[in-house]
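dumping this here before i forget
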Amino acid sequence: MKIKFAIIVVLLGITFALTGCAITTTATTASTGVTTSTTTTATTSTTTSATTQTTASTQRVFTLAELATYNGDGGSTAYIAVNGTVYDVTNVAEWNNGWHKGVHLAGTDATTAFAGSPHSASLLATLTIVGTLAD
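structure:
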């Protein structure tokens, strides 16, 4: 009887440990009249990973005049717009001080320049989106 009781208590403890609940069991053995009480408390911790993604509706909207202030001159912040999306190219080695391949494109709508670029889609996929370009 004692072994059976111990097994039941252990199984209940495992069950509730997995579900994160607390239980108290009380049993009285017939032969000794001794009452035993066991409390098993378990906490299950769950880690949630969240990725925050900024949507176009909450991103900054740049006018062409505002975009022009992010031209990368002297190592300042450099943004470009391509197909209405504004990207940060500040830390991209190929965009030193806002210049790319001998052309100063930072602070501009570079959609036309990117249309003929062989690597435009792969490059844009690596850049941080900082906003959209106003119509």
